[in-house]
From TrEMBL:
Cofactor: Mg(2+)
Intracellular or extracellular location(s): Cytoplasm
Keywords: Aminoacyl-tRNA synthetase, ATP-binding, Cytoplasm, Ligase, Magnesium, Metal-binding, Nucleotide-binding, Protein biosynthesis
UniProt cross-references to InterPro entries, sorted A to Z: aa-tRNA-synth_II, aa-tRNA-synth_II/BPL/LPL, Phe-tRNA-synth_IIc_asu, Phe-tRNA_ligase_II_N, Phe_tRNA_ligase_alpha1_bac, Phenylalanyl-tRNA_Synthase, tRNA-bd_arm
Protein family membership: Belongs to the class-II aminoacyl-tRNA synthetase family. Phe-tRNA synthetase alpha subunit type 1 subfamily.
Source organism (scientific name): Fluviispira multicolorata
Cellular component, GO annotation: cytoplasm
Protein's recorded name: Phenylalanine--tRNA ligase alpha subunit
Molecular function terms, GO-annotated: ATP binding; magnesium ion binding; phenylalanine-tRNA ligase activity; tRNA binding
């Protein structure tokens, strides 16, 4: 009676331990470890004993990987390390299988053939089964990894702050579109240039006010930071073949800084030199470009003016984009806003660049791109364009 009771208590304990998942897993690992590490007898007295050893080894291997390696490896038990231990235990250099293969040479000839066949049969079974089992293991690991990486497509999008173009760059980009359509070449030039290309070749004589200290940043000896992109025109007329049809966008420098002037700003300059070029070409081209720069048709006004490198010359005004001609603070109540200068290239400029002015004529104009951006986007102070104020940029959807 007492014995029956003790047996029941043990049974209850046994069942309770094995009904807990973790305990089961632990026992699974233990079982495998026991098989891998249990001491086994590999020596034999006769061929029958060898055959028995081989059959036992086969059972041990099947207990680990299943028949033909068909078990589905539980990743709570199997790991890369355990897989390697199985490989070494059953096929490694010191495995029973290899020892038996080595021992074949000691078996008498008449029995060697059947012993060899038995060992090789086990060898091929183990190799094929382990291959299948390894593949099953690899698939299990891959599936586990894929499941853990599944994307949740219902998650909300992360708001990316992509930024946008600066207003000056927006104007520059829009300005370049008609130039491209009309077949102009874009030409780049040096921002630091010598006196000849920045002034003299453009007929800016030694006593011209543009050379005064308050306007120009003078560098060593004859060098200056270019005060306009017109220096590219001088280079182009000297270095390129006629006819010329070029546009020169770029940064220029003047020693000025207030609401309507920046010390570094962008200009776009255009030059056409060919036979029969006249003021009509100039007006048409400027009209096309400024409509593009403002992204809407704008009213223009040409006021007679003086520039050393053009004759005749004119200032180009655009109807004020804030009051549309009525007059406001921004346009100083004139209804117009000054955008740039233009004219027919002065014959002296053509001659100084080695061009025969009796055969060729040219037109040129230059616009301040920042000035256009100021008018187009109704910016009251030009300095806002460069001070990096985030709230200003945000108002343009730029950040
Ligand atoms: Zn106005």
């Amino acid at each position: 009676m007492l014995q029956t009771l003790i047996l029941l208590v043990f049974s209850a304990l046994f069942i309770s331990v094995h009904s807990i998942g973790e305990a089961y897993v632990m026992s699974g690992i233990e079982e495998i470890k026991n098989i891998l590490t249990a001491p086994i007898s590999i020596t034999y007295q006769n061929i029958e004993e060898l055959k028995n050893h081989i059959d036992e080894e086969r059972v041990r291997f099947i207990n680990v990987v299943g028949k033909n390696g068909s078990n589905s490896p539980d990743l709570n038990i199997f790991s890369n390390e355990i897989m390697e231990e199985i490989r070494i235990r059953f096929t490694g250099k010191k495995s029973p299988l290899q020892e038996w293969l080595k021992s074949l040479r000691n078996i008498p000839n008449e029995e060697r053939k059947s012993a060899g066949a038995k060992i090789n049969e086990l060898k091929s079974e183990i190799e094929n089964s382990f291959k299948s089992f390894s593949e099953n293991y690899r698939i299990q690991v891959e599936n586990k990894k894929l499941n853990s990486e599944t994307d949740d497509i219902t998650l909300p999008l992360t708001q990316l702050n992509l930024g946008s173009r600066h207003p000056v760059m927006t104007v520059m980009r829009d300005l370049m579109v008609p130039f491209q359509r009309m077949g102009f070449s874009v030409v780049d030039g040096p921002e630091m240039d010598n006196d000849f290309f920045n002034f003299e070749a453009l007929n800016v004589l030694k006593d011209h006010p543009a050379r005064e200290m308050q306007d120009t940043f003078f560098l060593a000896s004859e060098w200056v930071l270019r005060t306009h992109t017109s220096n590219v025109q001088s280079h182009a007329m000297k270095e390129r073949k006629l006819p010329l049809k070029i546009v020169c966008p770029g940064c220029v420098y003047r020693n000025e800084f207030d609401m309507t002037h920046l010390p570094a700003f962008r200009q776009i300059e255009c030059l056409v030199v060919d036979k029969g070029i006249h003021m009509g070409h100039l007006r048409h081209t400027i009209n096309e470009l400024l409509n593009a720069a403002f992204a809407r048709p704008v009213k223009l006004r040409f006021r007679s003016s003086y520039f050393p490198f053009t004759e005749p010359s004119a200032e180009v005004d655009v109807e004020c984009q804030q009051c549309f001609g009525k007059g406001c603070r921004s346009c100083k109540h004139t209804g117009w806003s000054e955008i740039g200068g233009c004219g027919v290239v002065n014959k002296k400029v053509l001659e100084s660049c080695g061009i025969d002015s009796s055969v060729y004529s040219g037109i040129a104009f230059g616009f301040g791109v920042d000035r256009i951006a100021k008018d187009r986007f109704a910016i009251s102070d030009l300095r806002s364009l460069i001070d990096g104020n985030v709230s200003f940029l945000k108002s343009f959807g730029l950040v």
